[in-house]
Structure formats: C-alpha cells, structure tokens
Amino acid sequence: MTRSILYATAAAVLFPLSAHAQSADDPDAALPEVVVTATRLPAIVADTPGARVIDRAAIEQRGAVFAADILHDVPGVSVVRSGAFGGVAQVRMRGATPGKTLVLIDGVPVNDPAEVNGAFDFSSVELSDIERIEVLSGPQSSLWGSDAIGGVIAFTTRELDGFGADLEAGSYETLRGRLAAGVSAERYGFGAWVSHFDTDGISAADAADGNTEADGFTSTTIGARGRYAFRPDVAVDGSVRWTDSDVDLDGYAAPAFVLADTRDAQSSEQWSGFGRLRLEALGLAHQFSVSASDISRETVSAFPSAFEADRQVFRWQADGSAAGVDFVIGAEREDTAGSLSTGLTEELGATSVFGTARIDPTERLSLTGALRFDDTDDFGSKTTGRVSGAFAAGAGFILSAAYGTGFKAPSISQAVCDFCFSSQPFPVLRPETAEGYEGAIGWGSADGRIGGRLTLYRLNVEDQITYVFDPVTFDSVYVNVAETATDGVEFEGRGRLGGGFDLTVAYAWTDARDETTGARLLRVPEQAGSATLGWTGQRLSGALTVRAEGDQDDAGGVREAFITANLNGSYALTDKVTLTARIENLADERYQQVFGYGEPGRSGYVGVRLRY
Questions:
Q1: Which of 60, 358, 509, 540 is the most exposed place for a label (fewest CB within 10 A)?
Q2: Cα torsion for 48, 314, 125, 65, to the nearest 10°?
Q3: Which residue has the higher pLDDT, 196 or 17?
Q4: For the whole model, what pTM was predicted?
Q5: How far apart are CA 16 and CA 34, in angstroms?
Q6: Beta bridge partners of 486
Q7: In the chain, % of residues over pLDDT 70
Q8: How far is residue 73's CA from residue 57's CA, in Å, rounded to a whole number?
Q9: Could you give the 3-state DSSP secondary structure of residue 573?
Q10: Residues 104, 184: Cα–Cα separation, whole Å
Q11: In this structure, are strands 552-554 and 88-93 parallel, antiparallel, or unpaired?
C-alpha cells in the first residue's frame, strides 16, 4: 500500500468530512488531503489520534452561529453553557475540567488567566469569521505547555477576497449581521470584518421553574488579518480580533439562594492578536512571532466582581527536514498577569523549549514524537512528551495509537488563594499532571464514499487542584487532593449516500470519575451523540442535525437526558446571492443543557448572504 492511500484514508475519517461540499454523485471527485496544523508539524488526520477538523463548509452546512453550536458534535467534547444566549460556555474534553482545554485563535492562547481555573468562555465566539476549527483531544502539553491536559481547540480566521455581507433575523427579536471585505493575491492579502449579534433572549433560569424575565445578549466582533511577502523567503503576517459583549444573567438571590430571575448582568471585552516574521536561513524555515491577548469582565449582581488579565507570548520556531525526518524546534516565553475582584494581583510566567519530529520508516508506517521542557517562574519545571504512530494495514484500514503526558500550572486565582481563609498558612500548590493513551482503528472505502474511526482512550489526572471547605474550622483553601480518571470510546463516521445526500455520525461513551471518592465527575454525560443528514443540489441544500445526551450529574441534581434537532437550509438565487433559513429545536423539546438553566423552544431564523 502506498503513502497516497494513507492520505486518502485520512480524508475518509475526517470529522466532519469537508468533501460534502463536492457533488455527492461524482464518484471521481478528488478527496482532500486533510491536514491538521495545531500539531505544529502539519500532519494528516489519520496520523494524529484524537484530531478532528471542522471546515468552513461544515459550519455553513450546519448553520452554526457560535462555536458552542458545533463543538457539541465532536465526540468526547462536553459543552457546558449556563444560559442559552451569552451564558458562560466552557468545554470539558475527555472529562477534564474546563481549565484543562487550551484555546487558540490564530495561534494565540486566549484562555482567561483571571478565571478561577483559567478556562475560556466560548459564549461570544461567533463563527462568521472562522475558516476552520481544529480539535486535538488528549494531553498536548508537549506541543503547547500548560492548560492542554484535556486537549487543544484552535480557531483559524478567514482570509478574504472580495466583499461579503450577511443578515439574519428571527425569534426572540434576534438580529445578526456581518460585513467583510478583503483582497488576496500571491504576494499579499488583507481583509477586515465586523459582525454583530443582538437578541432579547429567554430567561437564563429555566422557565419551567416560573422564570419569565428575558435575558438579552449583545456581542460585536471586529477583526483584521494580513500578509505580505517581500520575497519568496521573507514574509510577514498577522491578525487582530476584538470582541465586546453584554449579557443579562440570572443568579441566586437571598433569601432562597436558588437560581431564579435576577437583574444580574455581565460585560466583557477581549482582544487578541499576533505578528509574525517568516524567513528561510541555514536550511530552516524560521518563524519569529509575538502574540498577545487581554480580557476584562465585570459582573453586576448582589456579589459584584471585576477581573482583568493579559498574556504575551514570544516565540521562535524553526521547521526543517534531514535524513528523512521532518522536525520542528523552538523556544518561547510566556508572561501572564491578572487583577482579581478582591484586589489581589499576580504575575506568572514560563520559559520553554520544544521539539517534534516525524519519520516514515516505510510507506505504511508513520511515527511522530514530541518533547517539551517548561520552566515556570513559580511552580518549578516540567518535561512532557508524546509519541504516536499510524500504520496502513491494508484494505482501507489504518491503525493508530498515542501516549502523552501533560501538566497545568495553578491559575492566578489558585496561586494567590483568592477567597481563601485559614488559620494555618495556605498550602503550597503543585502543578496538576496527567497522562493519556489511546488507540484507534479507521477505515475508508476505496471510492471514498464511506469512512469512520473508532477510538478507545484513558486519561488520568493527578494532583488536581480543588477548593475545599472545612465545616469545623471554616478553613477554605485550594489544595492538591483530587485524582481523576476517564475511560472512553469515541466513534465518528461519514458516508455519501447518493442522490446528493450525505450522513455524518458521532458518538461518545465517557466514564469520568473522581478516583478519590469514586463519584462521577459533574457535567460530563456518560453518553452523547449526533447525526447530520445533509443534502446538496444545484441551488438548494440543507442539513438535519439530531443531537442527544444522556443523564448528567450536576451541582444540585441530575440534568435529565434529552434529544433535540435543528434544520438548516439555503437556496442560491445567483452565484452571489443566497437565501438562508434555519429552525432550532425542531420538535419544541423542553430540555436543559445544564441543570437549572433553560433552553429555547422551537425558533426560526431567515437571512440573506451576499458574496462579491
């Protein structure tokens, strides 16, 4: 079997497969070489266990508006959203707590350093300017350092060529718009966009509990990106992205202290960007980059709070090839600072070196290894690594496996012991550590019409940092006590059914538990899955997505299982004008995604998309 077959099968097991943009009736349509780039050393998906790519075509087929709308469909990713519109949305990958997923936008780390766990809020990540989403499940600290125990989610913004406009309106007085313009040529490219989303929303607290006050959400995003090549071996590029949002919340008002309608509200502002110089010298392709992100958020409630944090990363990376080995080496410095509502401030930092390499001993076998050393300013040093391999076994089968380690340094809140009280000195915290291993079998038919992948994995986390309260002494502190483990099965598959139809399915069984107590981890459903039936014609296209989750343990109770469905369609009036329509919660199911928080009933939206 040749290496080209390995690439073809890689395309077949992509989730979701971008080939749906091609004619489903054309058996000779070339399969794309599906590549994931968040691995630093670009790799095909089949060579990278736990890797998925969601491209622009899949985003438009699903009618996804925000990142949380489509990340639901990635097996092993649990989206936790406290409020339907603008409520805090965080992810748990393979059972790991939200702060253990690293989020990148154009390669810039954007996790919130001032959040208790250092987690990222996906609620305002509008997808109109996103070209692709890459998801790497499992420990990735050998590539990206701290925060990547559960995995990495990397967003890449779009390069524009021409003018575009989108307008959509619908239920709950919702209005969404976008304007974008740009130019793209071989030596240069530049584009800018602005998008706005506004809705009256629904009550964040479930209406079934008597809550009727609508909680609105407004978000505006402005961005720009550009590149210029001075000559073939010297080029610069960069991007900047700014988001401002305001959301009405519900809280736990006295004297009942149960989730109900309140006048709580939160405003946040975040920007991120990078600048990079690329040049070739000494037989290597060098990248020198500076990236930065900044976030401020303020909550108005009975317990008001304000937080502000920023991060800067200075990185050198060099790509090369020698003696049949492709490799990347590099070094970086990260500085983080945060100001908490209690008046406490802290600065954290780390200096790191890393390397990753890939070798193909035979046409059937590909091996990849990565190693990284992180020297933190306050919590010692850590060395992490990852090895993986993929073997083309014949008859369309690919066997792959990986083992990796990870770590997460304490967040700023944990480092300063925010909201702590103790008659004794606060405990000295250690970084959390993890190891994960997985094996997968993928298969793709020779004609590329059917493909799938089955993955089995285990993720262990030790020294997990937990906030504990002693009811006797009233001591309240952060300590390293918890050990967690997750065993899981992930399946994804896709088939072209003929007649313009295609089907994508995903399923995850996740057994996430606290090894110290034996209890299931909160907000991680044991079973979850989705199926999307798409259809593409000459002018009309559409997709029906059905998503289901089993019972989920949560603080205060058990969130019951649910099934919901969304329908999305578009009609091309001309090659420049397209009408769009979507219906969410098609069966008007009453359900909760997080215990106590309601979700919208059946709702509809219509719009127009212009491309010139």
A1: 540
A2: -50
A3: 196
A4: 0.93
A5: 11
A6: 459, 512
A7: 95
A8: 15
A9: coil
A10: 24
A11: unpaired
